[in-house]
Design goal:
single chain; alpha+beta; 9 strands; elongated
Length: 253
């Protein structure tokens, strides 16, 4: 049985219309996928914000709970008075005593005029010291000492660069000798006469006295490990050899 052409045309037209109508309607899976992506983006955003907040809280907790040094009721300074195991010479104990008794003080930086002595040396006293004993000819003394080369003055060291310090070039942070024994320059000893224990003076020796002291072997020498001091000491005698001695008396007998 054959279908007439008009009827066939009508059926084909109806089928085309239905197809077009369904093709413009979004499929449900596509809408569902879009919603799923939006939900995923929201979860990612909230997850990022939660991670940042957790990190900030952890950092704050770590900062506030960092351990602080605990003394357990013990004064750390009191421990310095105890003997050091293996310190058979007493060097560590002696250094502690010197540091506690002879630390820097505000009066050490005062600008005081120098007093000129008959030998040509000059001095100025920054700290008077204490006690009845004073340095006199024949006194047995000990002192901390720094020696500066006046010719090698810099902006950071206007008094001159150091070539010798008892702290760096001796075992006990002091020199001990008898006044008048010839171990140290007589001009230096002249500038120390009258000092008491704990007194501080700067004593300047002129170049002529320094050259004589070098010839007599009475100048303190830098240790082998003090390379800069050894170089400065050698170069000192190629120019004006004036020296500045910074002296702190630690003992008098």
């Amino acid at each position: 049985m054959k279908t007439s052409t008009p009827i066939l045309s009508m059926l084909l037209a109806a089928n085309w219309t239905t197809t077009q109508a369904f093709s413009v309607i979004p499929s449900r899976p596509a809408a569902k996928s879009t919603a799923l992506y939006a939900s995923s983006d929201r979860r990612s955003f909230f997850l990022q914000q939660s991670t940042k907040a957790a990190s900030a809280s952890a950092a704050l907790l770590f900062t506030s709970s960092s351990p602080q040094p605990a003394s357990a009721g013990i004064d750390p300074n009191a421990l310095k008075s105890f003997a050091v195991e293996g310190d058979t010479t007493g060097a560590s104990s002696r250094l502690r005593q010197i540091e506690s008794a002879n630390g820097p003080r505000p009066e050490d930086s005062k600008d005081i005029a120098f007093e000129v002595l008959p030998s040509g040396a000059s001095f100025r006293e920054y700290r008077e010291g204490k006690g009845e004993a004073t340095i006199q000819p024949g006194s047995k003394v000990a002192a901390e000492m720094t020696i500066r080369c006046r010719s090698f003055a810099t902006a950071d060291a206007p008094g001159g660069l150091t070539y010798f310090t008892t702290k760096g070039d001796t075992d006990f942070n002091e020199l001990a000798w008898t006044i008048g024994s010839g171990e140290l320059p007589p001009e230096l000893e002249e500038g120390m006469i009258g000092m008491r224990k704990g007194a501080v003076r700067r004593i300047e020796l002129p170049s002529t006295a320094v050259f004589a002291a070098r010839k007599n072997g009475s100048l303190p020498l830098p240790s082998d490990k003090n390379k800069d001091g050894k170089r400065r000491f050698e170069n000192l005698f190629k120019t004006d050899a004036t020296l500045m001695f910074e002296v702190l008396v630690t003992r008098i007998k």
